[in-house]
Each structure stands twice: as C-alpha cells, then as structure tokens.
Design brief:
This protein has eight helices and four strands. With 215 residues, it is an alpha+beta fold. It has one domain (4-213): Muramoyl-pentapeptide Carboxypeptidase, domain 2.
Length: 215
Amino acid sequence: MISIEELIGKGSPHLVGEEIKFRKEAYDALLSMRNDAKKSGVLITCVSGYRSFNRQKSIWERKYRNYIAQGLGPIESIKKIIRFSTIPGTSRHHWGTDIDIVDGYHFDVPHLLAPSNFDKDKPFYKLGQWLETHASEYGFFQVYTNDPGRKGFNHEPWHYSYQPLSVDYLKKYKELDILSILQAEKFMGSEHFSPGFIDGYIKDHVLDINPKLLP
C-alpha cells in the first residue's frame, strides 16, 4: 500500500544507506551495479537519493527568492526553476527509487550535475556510456532522456530510476489531485499555480519521461 504521504515526500518510508538513502530493493540493485561498474573503471557515486518534501521545498524556495530578487516575475521565476528542479510534492526523489549519479573518480569537477560533463572527452563520458549499456540490467533507467521530442525537464544524464518500484509509484501518483495538494502547502509561488499550469506540468514534466518508466 503506497500512501499519499509517501508519494509527496511527507511519509516515513523504510530507507537504507548512510548519508544518501534509498528503498532497500533499489539500494541492493545499486550496490550490485556499482560493484560491476568498478570492474570497468567507473566508480558510481550517488549525490542524491531520497529527498523529503521539506528538502525539495527549501531548494524550490531558495531558487524562487533568488529569481525574484533578480527582478523576474513569479510566473517567469517558476518557469525558470522547472527547467531542472521539481515543484515540492512532485519529485521522483520523494519515492526513494531515484538516484543522481556521478563518477567518483572525477569528483573534483566544479559543477557535478552539468549535462556537458557527460559529453565525449569529458569527465563523466565513460560513466554515461557504461550506464547507457548496462544500467537496465539492474533495473535502472535514465528518466529525462535526450530525446529531441521530449518536453518537460532538460536532459539529465545523471538521473536514474529503479523501474521495478518507481513504475508503481508513478501509477499511484497519477491518481492524486496535485493542484489541491500543492495549494494547501502554501510554499513560495504556489499561489500562482493554475489548473492549466499544473495540468501542463504533469503532462510534460511528470509523464513525458523515458517510456520504460511509464506504468
């Protein structure tokens, strides 16, 4: 049984791991993938796993304040944030099934989560190639692919989801009244969410993902 609280990052899921937490099944698969990748000279290192609603809210509100301070309007600020960051209550990281991956052998890169780091001759190129070939063997699939027809979040070559679990979470998530949930939370910018905006956000940012991860 998956609760509404778990779906929006407000539950108390059983998680494992040290500083970065995951659901046990996803964590076990990650360890197996990490061990095999290391044999190929790639050190899979996670920089994000489970993220609570409050943690996502702090990320959102920090960016929102910054853009407003730069002179952007509320709607323009929201549109800029959702190029890469999710609205709190809508993040796949709330589920404990999704991970952000870098190569620990190149951890000194100034901007870890930059798509260009995965380009040819760049620090994470070998990691990206290994994941593209092997991640699915362990149940992991890239969420926001580089498909030119895909909408929503920009390409994130570091973000992978453990499909055996996350498909069920997304299936239940689609049943929620997201607009009501978000407006009840009253975080910065949420008063500007209209039904049309949220419908479009769900369609483009939540559901326009790797088809392998759709219910």
